[in-house]
Amino acid sequence: MAAYDPVMRIRPTALEDADALTDLHLDVWDEAYTGLIAADILADRRTNREARVENWRRILAGCTRTELAAEDDTGRLIGFTSVGPGRDEPAPDLPKREVMALYVRAECYGTGVGHALLNAAIGDDPAYLWVLDGNRRAIDFYERQGFHFDGTNKTEPVGVERRMVRR
Q: Which InterPro entries match (predicted)?
């Protein structure tokens, strides 16, 4: 298989992206988490697509976070990121911003799309995020971006998540 070479642009998301973001979000979860979380969780996510579209419409209409999309030269969404005020209990050493999501299509792994999205959303600023334990590809990516585990873990229905922080 030839390497994917995206000609991309990063842009703010818009309300009319709700359908495309829903499909992208479902696809990237399948690509990133197959083998890491239970297959029935992934399958269940696809059972009510319209509710997911409506959720994206609420998120995009509320605009309390930075929502950015990467699109290829055909206008197809190939990645997205969501960054906003941290949802964790405030602490003196915890950055105030959280990377709530950063996903790219598997065909774009290693092409710079994820780095471009993260850079556009937070630059070199401090932030934190949660990563699924065992997601080596994501952990390696975030470590290259200056994030490190701070020892905080939580158990979610998808598994154990570990917090990474960049100060």
A: Acyl_CoA_acyltransferase, GNAT_dom
Task: Find the helix or strand (DSSP H, E) in which 44 lies.
Answer: helix 39-45
Amino acid residing at 87: R
Which DSSP string do the residues of 22-43 spell out, in sequence order? HHHHHHHHHHHHBTTB-HHHHH
The residues, ordered by sequence, that sit 6+ positions from 156 with a Cβ below 8 Å of its Cβ are: none
Q: Which of 134, 128, 131 is nearest to 161 (CA)?
A: 131
| 21 vs 34: CA distance, rounded Å | 19
- Reported pTM: 0.93
Let me know how long the chain is.
167
- pLDDT score of 1: 39
**Domains detected in the chain:** 9-166 (3.40.630.30)
